[in-house]
Amino acid sequence: MNEFISLFSQSLNQNPWLFIALSFIFAATIGSFLNVVIHRFPVMMKREWQQECNQYLQEYHADIVTQIGIDKLNKPIDSFPDKYNLLLPGSACPKCKTAIKPWHNLPIFSWLMLKGKCAACQAPISARYPIIELITGLLVATLAWHFGPSWQFVFASILTFVLVALTGIDLDEMLLPDQMTLPLLWLGLIINLNHTFASPTDAIIGAAVGYLSLWSIFWLFKIITGKEGMGYGDFKLLAVFGAWLGWQMLPLVILLSSLVGAVIGVTMIVSKHLKQGNPIPFGPYIAAAGWIALLFGQQIVDWYLGTL
Question: What positions does the domain Prepilin peptidase A24 N-terminal occupy (predicted)?
């Protein structure tokens, strides 16, 4: 077995394009699962919040429970089955409820073969599914090209998978779940004990500075305007990149995310896709900027310093 692994690893090192192709296929398959995470995880969170609220009311506010009625209080907030998680129930067409066959669930290709329609009822299937699969595959293929077969590639891929899920959830729900950001934060600190992307000292300082920088801006903005300019999830996501890349990359991440966010926000306002004053999620811009800094941060910094 060890000999087989050694030969396989040697083959990948000698054939980088094979490694890139295999990485794309594997990541696109993971992207199919990320579609499930993006759709189901917020539903699971809302159900958990409802259960916690109901339990609190039943324990401490019996008069309110009596007034509302226990049946109404425990009524589900959605129409999904009672047993609903990332694995159950199996994937099915939202219109006709027909279970999706395994050969109809192949990343990207199944959607193209089915021409974007359900095999059973011909209801349209959102192009969002193959797009997320394609983006995930391309991102990880880029990591394979950049890092090659290495632990840096493995950890960078894990980071990328979670960033894709966080981006989709934030776009849909304006939410960056702690259940995803906090494990990433701790993972970044742990892997950098071996200087994977940064030194342990730089990672610890980066996590603290990443969180406190946006936290300070949040409170300064709130004191001046009385409004909340961003969510706490944004603080934690920037802390993630501080923990993974070190504090030195944080100015670049903040600059890139702010620039991209400003350009897209103004474009959406001008094109009337966003009313002025309406909130837009900032997490996707932090995620994109952090991912770029992961691969090309030092080159960008060196280029900028060379132009001064």
Answer: 25-147
